[in-house]
Amino acid sequence: MHALLLAYDEHDLRTTVPALTMAVAEAALTPDQRLILSGTLKILSNVWIAFISDEEESARLADVLTYLGDTPDTGAAHAVAVAQHLDWPILTMSMKRWEPIAALLPYRLDLFEIKDPN
Fold first, then answer.
1. Which stretches of 11-73 are DSSP H helices?
2. I need a labelling partner for 89 at 20 to 30 A (CA). Which of 21, 42, 106, 113 fits?
3. Which segments of the chain have a pLDDT < 50?
């Protein structure tokens, strides 16, 4: 995936990575993979990490979490909240991962599956 982010950055395509989504993804990485990700993000000028830094952002996340029910996927919820706010699509490596989430939301998600991240 880092190759895709590098290519986007090279072509001045803005990309946003929700912080909670990134944290959930990082939890599954090895320490070496985390270092690569961290190093990659540091050199990209067109990638913005979307933090939850004020009440408005917190409320957007809470709205999405409400739809997801008793066992919310916080990483996915943050991605949805940021995508809805920016009116941007969600890029994913697995469309199947998003099916149960999309089914719970009262609005359509714009999802684009990345078949080959390189």
1. 19-26, 31-43, 55-68
2. 42
3. none
Q: Which two tokens stand for residue 56?
A: 């408005």
Q: What is the DSSP letter of 88?
A: -
**Of 52, 47, 68, 62, which is closest to residue 5 (Cα–Cα)?**
47
Question: What is the pTM assigned to this prediction?
Answer: 0.85
Residue with tokens 């990490």: 49
Strands 15-18 and 47-50: parallel
Tens of pLDDT along 24-34? 999 999 999 99
Name the burial class of residue 54, with classes exposed (0-12), middle (13-18) and buried (19+) by CB atoms within 10 angstroms of its CB. Answer: exposed
Q: How many CB atoms lie within 10 A of CB 45?
A: 9
User: Any idea which residue has 């999802």 for tokens?
Assistant: 111
